[in-house]
User: Fold these one by one.
Assistant:
Number 1:
Amino acid sequence: MCLCVDARCSSMGVSRLDIFYRRLLLTKLFIGGWGKPEDLKRIFEFRKIIGDREKCKSLVPEDYPVYINKTEDHSDCQIHDGVFISPLEHLVPGILPKEAVKARFQFIVPKRWQNNRPVCIHLAGTGDHFFWRRRTLMARPMIKEAGMASLLLENPYYGYRKPKDQMRSSLKNVSDLFVMGGALILESTVLLRWLHGEGYWPLGMTGISMGGYMASLAVTNWPKPIPLIPCLSWSTASSVFTTGVLSKAVNWAELEKQYALNSVYEEEIINLLDYCGADSFKMGQDFGRNVDSKDRLLDLSGGDRVSVNTYTKAGGETQVGQSLLFGEGHREGMAGGNVDHLLSSLDNSGTNLDTIPRGLHAKSTLCWKKTDSAKCSRPSMHKESISFMKGVMDECTHMANFSVPVDTSLIIVVQAKEDAYIPRTGVLSLQEIWPGCEVRYLNGGHISAYLFKQNFFRQAIYDAFKRFCLKYPGLH
């Protein structure tokens, strides 16, 4: 086991177990497609508000109603079941499925506190329905080890909040993930304020995998210093669905079809994307309009053409880049104009878009321009759909699109060095976005870390809470 806090420590490969485990799962993601265009527009407009902590101070009232409707008494703890209406239903009416409007949680409180009355909010990872998994693997051990309470919030689209037409954990639409994120940010604010009003201290947030992303988003919105422990997550979800092993589970056929047939995605929704989204998608298009065609286009057997990538350095200087889509091993073939090699790469490289050197603020993308709108060949539409996926995912999940947490020294990130689910290559690191945060790396991949390293997740929680108490002993 490696517990590395050096920012230079990075993955040396991907876990075979991660790849094998994913192949055992046959369900497809996003079988319904992108989601309603009007829903995407509403989500992106709301993201511009919720991404700015100052704009959100009055979104959730201090006395937002929370109800405890059941209490169970156990030998070492009490388990309270609670409910409240998600604030997202008030702020963006109708965006949540009716089953998800009522937020549900379990509050697991030790009968004997060891020191203060600390509470950690745990958000659910992919497939973590109801409360049993987090209660058994994290909350109950935390009571025994540290006398720490846990509050387990059920994600929208999971457990009691799962829509009737959703298959297991497979979100039906891409937009569902963004709705989930917006809801969890607001719902976490409700719970943090409720816990504070009830006299609990200190308060923190954690989550594993998708739960780590969601906990990170929630903390960007909290106006006070707070411990944050995201486990097995990183700076954006775009790489998860375009280059990670989960990209193979995405229903690209439906996404490509919808993107090809509905011009609203390319003509309207793209204009709503900020920072990573707009930069990554529009950069290739802008470059394509401004550079002489014979220098920028490679004809692929007629009909469809591809523009060479561009990227922007941290200082803002735009440069022409080699096509980074195919990775280091394929650039020579591009430069030599080897069309057969290029087409072979298109078929074999999957969705490897994230191969840009670290430190670049905008992600490179490949933007295809169709010369015949009736001719939507698979390579063309697949790459455009991937570019669009990167744009919309970065818009709503990239941490650089949200406020920096008040005190980044209270953040301890736990990552797996060989994580095939959460690619870190070619995306901004959390250390770059949140200077001062600590990153701990574990040997192995995503699945092995989840199955066998929960104790390291819990230790990171204890360390972050201790750090908070030492730094802010009087902050209540």
Number 2:
Amino acid sequence: MVSQIVELLKNEIPLEQETVVMSEDSVNGLVLVDIINGFCTVGAGNLAPTEPNSQISEMINESARLARLFCEKNLPVMAFLDSHHPNKPEDPYPPHCIIGSDESNLVPALRWLENEPNVTMRRKDCFDGFLGSIEEDGSNVFVDWVKKNKIKTLVVVGVCTDICVLDFVCSTMSAKNLGLLKPLEKVVVYSNACATFDFPLDVARNTKGALAHPQEFMHHVGLYMAKERGAKIASQVLFGATEKA
């Protein structure tokens, strides 16, 4: 019944995806959002999955594959790591990914990124990596990274599709439209390398302050909203001599 309802809802807001071919003649950047133990490794924390999850597993595998490809080409990669200070809540969620804990570290399949010279790591203590990149002096690590590397196409992957990924994409699209991220031209969300969590209605009803969160549908909604903001939603990301319009 649940899957039928999800399909009905998805039919009301259909999402058209595309194959994105990135030009080898310009700089392409990759952003990995919160692919850390606290959100992806079974039993790793309050917001980690309680059992193996196929959507999360595919997201990790595809993100790792794409990251390898970017590193082999020596292209710029930025990894956001959700890292919170103790006793600083992030409502409506329970404490998670505390700085210094293994929850806030990359999953094992991506830990190798820490030793790659083309990778920039950024710990953030909020949903939105764009806002989480702001320094005390007002500068922005992400904005500087885009400008320094002259990134024209940005590929975004990670978790959660409808929360941290979407928040980051919305801020990035707004900044791009305001001319704050030149020479950035295109933001691509690779759907198979994104994932969100599952929190069924029957469980939410018995959990104080909790909101129901059907995984498959909220993943769809996150991608749909990102496309509404102007991002391209890719079912496949390829490198080629010429870039597909």
Number 3:
Amino acid sequence: MESDVDATMLACLAFSCPNMQSLEISMADSAVNRMTGDELTRFISEKKSLTVLKVDRCSGLGFLNINSTSLSTLWLSDLSSITKYVINCPNLSELSLIFSQQDNDSTDLISMMDSLGRTCLNLRKLHISSIHLCNEAVFALGSANLRGLCMLSLLLGKKITDAAVASIVRSFTSLELLDLSGSCITDNGLGMISKAFPDTLTRLLLAMCPNITSCGVQVAAVQLPLLQLMDCGKSLCANVQPEAPRSYFGDLNGGIRFCSKLQVTRKQQPTYQKLIIKHANLKKLSLWGCSAIDALYVNCPELSDLNLNSCINLNPERLLLQCPSLKDVHVTGCRDMLIGAIRNQVLNEFAAAEPRMPCKRLADGSKRVQVPQFMPEQQFEDEKWCGESRRSQCAVHI
């Protein structure tokens, strides 16, 4: 929308489209969504055939009171301080609620999660993004009767730990997608995920999870044979900061202790990690911003997309890519030597040193002889005859 969204516009939409089935409102930078909770409630109640509703910039709603027997997909973004929460939609299968990243957001996510099991029994896809997500909210979701859930995305929950993972694996047995990006789960939580969903999980997203290591990622790759997408972006990071004259360190109990004043400022040495990914079905692997990785070995015959953006400490001499199906490698922010090594591995492998003539055996089968190129179709057939069909080149995105 280039113009503001308000009650007048909703009334016009309701009048001009009496049999509306789908509505998506995305806002231009200069536009403002003035829709209130009352106006959204009235609009949905009047649209008896509405099945899909996606609305951007819903900061002014104040509350949610949505009752619909037709609605199957509901996306609301930029929510803030929802004082009342009712979504009574028995046929809702997909719900996405994105909250603004404000510290003063007073939404009670625990009560919200708890109510889903009573009012949205057929929910299959759930996406919640909030910096106030915590273990207790996940526990409430686990106690809800959402046994059919197959896609669960809980983003930016820094208070989500392995305890929440334990609740997830107990409550949901058939997850195909799990996204806990921005959480504080560890390798133990990753191990629980790997053991719980070996027969269902195809997409695992753990970006910006600072407490997982390359060891946990490797174990997950081994124990999740159906995995097609894995995102560990910005999780395996080498945080190198100079020591100040007065430094502090957190201990296991969450306390803070101070060290004595240092006369000489020295640089802490990061701990680098090596990562080995060997997987038969993985198609997309994202390691963007993983500055802790200095050695990488990827053996994935089906991998088509590899993201290594800002892997600034990856050693070109400790890189090995054995991925014959690669189509795109992303290397923005990488060192020139690493980019050159990647080019050598993914491009030169596909490029022929010189044009080769197709060949056939003599009638008596004694030896092969070159055949002149007459028609492209003939060349293609002859190359198949010789078992030398070529593969397409890979694109390196800088």
